[in-house]
Amino acid sequence: MFEAHCDYSIKVDGNMMLCTMQGAWNVEGTVEYFESVKQHAQTLIQSPWGRIVDTTHFDAGPIEIMQILIDIQKWSLEHNCQLLVIVGSKTLNRDIIEKNKHQYPKMALASTMEEAIKQIKQCLEE
Fold first, then answer.
1. Which CATH number is 22's domain given?
2. pTM tops 0.90, yes or no
């Protein structure tokens, strides 16, 4: 087993989870992030909420992390998340997201955090 390699921050603001992913990740780091998402979501899951992930400085990792990221989205949807907005993906990351879009229901892309927050607020008002 390898040491977790990941750099992230997660904070809850009202009915939104704001996540930042940075650097290169491995499977162990992605699993750690998933557990942290679950912990932070505990205050949100009783009502509709949205998740924003800023990937502006995310360098991805091995293809094996993709399934864990998909599992995070599935878990979020099962726990009342109404929309995932991914901010600032690099071209390669954006291509991977587009290729796997069918596995990310209720997902949108945004260029800025402000745009992402606006999308979440609009979604939660509907």
1. 3.30.750.24
2. no
